[in-house]
Amino acid sequence: MYRIGKEEIEEVRKVIKSGQLFRVGEASSGHLGECDLFEQEWSEKIGSEYSLLMCGGGTAALVCALAGIGVGPGDEVIVPAYTWLATATSVLTVGGIPVLAEVDETMALDPADFERKIGPNTKAVIPVHMVGRPANLEAIVRIARKHNLKVVEDSCQMIGGTFKGKRTGTWGDAGAFSFNWFKIISCGEGGALVTDDREIYEIASIYSDSGSAFRPKACELQVPIFVAQQYRADEVMAAIMRVQMKRLDGILADLRRARKRFEEEAKAVPGIRVAPSNDPDGDCGVVMTLQFDDEKRARAFVDVCPLQGWLGIDHGKHVYTNWTPLLEKRIMHHPDMNPFNFPQNQGLRMDYSEEACPKTLELLRRTFFISMNPEWTEDEIKSGSSALKGALSKV
Ligand SMILES: *Cc1c(COP(=O)(O)O)cnc(C)c1O
Fold it and tell me: Does the residue 58 lie in any domain?
């Protein structure tokens, strides 16, 4: 979350005054329909047929997307080794097994390794657009189609950005966004699923709404109703998100402006390399990304960096070697509900050891991410980028 203020307060005030905080209600009784409006507006903004706002975050959106494409026991889903662990655990939630693939220098899923990792039980792939940097969707979708695989985009950290002019989240069969506090726009917690596919939308609606029990239009669904989880959004979060959505383009413009300037300064230092991007113009500008020749030089920079940032390998549970519950195969509260124990999953690939993705670890050890701030003034950008240049000249 970068910006929030009196516009959100005003919209929340209206919802509270209406006295109707549940997403379903009658306009004739003063219900504002914020959730429905957000979903319409989000679809228009992102460019998808359907949107579904959820209280369960990007994780819920991923789970519903995977349920929507039919992932279950016996299925492998390929995920990058550098991502928030929820990308992998969402596969386990629906009964499938996540299989790790390497990232490339762009720090997103390596299309070549993705293709190498495809096996007889592979059902889908989840490209992740980490820190607002797009994965190579063109290559990934092409490979997936060739092998008859589904694509679910994890766009939780990339909200509003594009790859080749098309918004991320809309390239695959479904996309997931997160609106938790650490993301580009936020209502504290929450997320959204987007898709053009009616069946995915219906399954996700049912999965996330106690079998669509409260949907006034549930009788129009073609998919037979089943009961799964309850991730329904409420009117307060939708009211906040409708304002946040209006702030998005301004936030992205300011982040991108800062990133461009910082990159120019960094590139002027001999021997310093900015990590390649799959689409520098579509990139959200959340970070600028430096790639050093080796870990020693990267560590030396950590000690002198004048700005907020982190070395990839120190990124906690975004690095697969720190996904303790997966390493120890501890999923769900009961052993019979642990997908690692399912008979259908025996024989599937479950290697999360240090050796699984050595290239990713090697890259993370020498890739440094510097956080951009959309509130920086022209002067702050100038002094910050020249301080960066100074620090880089020392390492
Ligand atoms: C934040 C995030 C998620 C999960 O989102 P929540 O809203 O916390 O559930 C999933 N994947 C990635 C890459 C994320 O950054």
Answer: yes
- Assess if residue 268 is contained within a domain: no
CATH number of the domain residue 44 falls in: 3.40.640.10
Does any domain span residue 302? no
pLDDT tens track for 242-273: 999 999 999 999 999 999 999 999 988 888 89
Please indicate whether residue 58, judged by its CB atom, sits closer than 6 Å to ligand 1: yes
| Cα angle: 374, vertex 172, 76; to 5 degrees | 110
Nearest residue (CA) to ligand 1, atom 3: 58
Which atom number of ligand 1 is nearest to the Cα of residue 61?
A: 9
The pair of three-digit structure tokens given for residue 117, joined into one six-digit string: 């990792």
For position 99, what pLDDT does the model report?
Answer: 98
Pocket test for ligand 1, best of 62, 87, 109 (most atoms within 8 A of CB): 87
Sequence letter at residue 170: T
The minimum-distance atom of ligand 1 relative to the CA of 86 is 10
CA of residue 208 to ligand 1 center, whole Å: 17
- Residue 154 beta carbon below 6 angstroms from any ligand 1 atom: yes
Report d(CA 140, CA 153) in Å as an integer.
Answer: 10
Q: Which atom of ligand 1 is nearest to the CA of 157?
A: 15
Asked if the structure places residue 72 within a domain, the reply is yes
Find out whether 179 and 190 touch, Cβ atoms under 8 Å. yes
Q: Which residue has the tokens 């019979």?
A: 336
Which DSSP string corresponds to 150-183? EEEEE-TT-SS-EETTEETTSSSSEEEEE-BTTS
* pTM, two decimal places: 0.97
Domain count, the chain: 1
Distances (CA, A) of 309 to 21, 48, 112, 155, 305: 39, 34, 29, 21, 8
The closest of 257, 288, 373 to 2, measured between CA atoms, is 373
| Domain extent for 20 | 6-244
Beta carbon of 157 within 6 Å of any ligand 1 atom = yes
- State whether the beta carbon of 83 lies less than 6 angstroms from ligand 1: yes
